[in-house]
Design a protein that fits this description.
about 290 residues; 4 helices; 18 strands; disordered N terminus
């Protein structure tokens, strides 16, 4: 009898481990936000990924809303938050509850003190980081090779660029992702986000949190604190991040260039006539 029980336990553990990609531990619960520490920092959790309690109870599911290298901020999409405890173990696996796969649209960015944002925070942008595949992007923003009302594929300077657009009003707003191919896998090379509008013959910064780019990203469940930088004066950007290592000037706009300690390149764009941040480009190129 004991031998049978032992075999059952071993079989259960083997089956559970075969479904588990990686595990984490709940370290903080603040309101509706749950922070999970990643037990394998070499493989960060991915944006939009579902995490389940290790008990295998499919009714308790967390979704990653802001992944970092060693942890991830999540929201509860199924079950009761009262059932979660500090120290509870969660895992990422193939099990999913079909009724919970739809991301509920967010309505506004979570406010943050922009002074607390650091250059190293840009090693992840919109929840995506270096090495992430386009397949992961598709899970969040939709399939990139199908023309829809908010998706267009174009070619500029012989570079394939994927453009997600929110065609609301006159906002010239977009999310641009440039892929590159490594070992036959398409991965993210750079991400650009614009938040602008056209008035007359000039372009201006436009708050798109209600209609436009940021609203589009919120509808996909993306709430990146760094999006709060849009509309910030150029002088404030310098006070937060220091002097840029390069400044490029064009007839209509200029660019402040920075780099994170890990080599991620960050470009901040400002129109000459207003000096407010209207565009952010993050490059993961080697």
């Amino acid at each position: 009898m004991r031998k049978s029980i032992g075999l059952f336990i071993l079989l259960f553990i083997f089956t559970l481990n075969s479904q588990t990609k990686q595990s984490g531990t709940i370290v903080k619960i603040t309101g509706s936000e749950i922070t999970v520490r990643n037990e394998n920092p070499q493989k960060p959790f991915q944006m939009g990924e579902n995490l389940h309690l290790l008990t295998g109870d499919e009714s308790i599911i967390l979704r990653v809303t802001f992944p970092m290298q060693t942890s991830a901020k999540c929201k509860l999409i199924s079950g009761s938050i009262k059932s979660l405890k500090i120290g509870s173990i969660v895992y990422s696996g193939e099990q999913q509850s079909k009724k919970d796969t739809v991301v509920k649209p967010l309505t506004k960015l979570q406010p943050v003190k922009i002074e607390s944002i650091k250059l190293e925070d840009f090693n992840s942008f919109l929840g995506f980081s270096k090495g992430n595949s386009l397949e992961n992007v598709e899970k969040i923003l939709g399939p990139p090779f199908i023309k829809t009302s908010n998706l267009l594929m174009i070619n500029v300077e012989n570079r394939s660029i994927l453009v997600w657009k929110d065609l609301t009003g006159e906002n010239e707003t977009k999310v641009v992702i440039e892929p590159k191919i490594i070992n036959n896998l398409k991965i993210i090379s750079s991400i650009s986000v614009g938040s602008t509008t056209i008035k007359g013959k000039k372009k201006y910064y436009q708050d798109t949190s209600s209609s436009g780019t940021i609203s589009f990203l919120l509808s996909k469940g993306i709430d990146d604190p760094k999006l709060n930088l849009f509309g910030t004066p150029a002088s404030k950007i310098i006070s937060i991040f220091g002097e840029p290592y390069k400044i490029e000037k064009e007839s209509e706009y200029y660019i402040y260039s920075y780099a994170s300690p890990k080599g991620t390149k960050i470009n901040f764009r400002f129109y000459n006539h207003e000096n407010l941040l209207h565009g952010i480009e993050v490059s993961f190129r080697d």
